[in-house]
Amino acid sequence: MMRILVLSGPNLNMLGSREPHVYGTETLKDVEEMLVALGGELGVELEFYQSNHEGELIDALHRAHASSQAAVFNPGAFTHYSYALRDGISAIDPPVVECHLSNLFAREGFRHKSVITPVCAGQVSGFGIQSYALALRAAVALAGKAVGEGA
Ligand code: DQA
Questions:
Q1: What is the per-residue pLDDT across 1-58, written as a single tens digit (0 to 9) for each?
Q2: Residue in 100, 117, 120 to alter for ligand 1 test, most ligand atoms within 8 A of Cβ
Q3: What's the confidence (pLDDT) of residue 149?
C-alpha cells in the first residue's frame, strides 16, 4: 500500500489554541483524524510526525526516502529561512507537497518568501485545515505517477 508522510513543523502542536483567528480552532489531532478518513477513501497509509526541532524534521525526511512514496510538509516558520530543510527535501526521492493553513501572501512580508517551494512539487496555502487535505490529494496523485499507477 502507498505510504505518505504527513510532517508538521514548529508550533503546529499548538493548533487549536495558537492564534485561532489565524489558524482556526481545530487541533493537530483533528487534522490527523480528517486525513485518516481521507487516506482511507484514497487507499493510502499515512504516517504522522510533528517536531519543533529542525534536525528531527530533517531526520523524518531522510526516513521517508526509504519508507514513503510522497510527503505533505508544513514546515511552519522554517519555511521562510531553513536551507537545511530545503536541502533535506532535495536529498530525498519522494515528492514533497508544501502545505500551509494560512495564506502566506496575505500576511507579513517575511512570510511571502518560502525557501522550500523551489524544491517541492508545489505549495498549498490558505485553506485552513483543508490545505492538508488538498496537499494529501496532490501527494497521492504524485506518488501514483511515480509508481506508474497514473495520476
Ligand atoms: C504556517 C505559516 C508560517 O508562516 C508560520 O510560521 C506557521 C504556520 C501555516 O501553516 O500557515 O507556523 O506554516
A1: 899 999 999 999 999 999 999 999 999 999 999 999 999 999 999 999 999 999 999 9
A2: 100
A3: 62
Mutate to test the pocket of ligand 1, among 14, 74, 125 (most ligand atoms within 8 A of CB): 74
Q: Phi and psi at residue 129, in whole multiples of 5°?
A: -70, -15
Give the torsion through C-alpha atoms of 45, 13, 58, 116, to 10 deg.
Answer: 90
Contact (CB, 8 A) for 98 and 122: yes
Please state whether the predicted TM-score (pTM) of the whole model is above 0.90. yes
The neighbour count for residue 54, using CB atoms within 10 Å, is 16
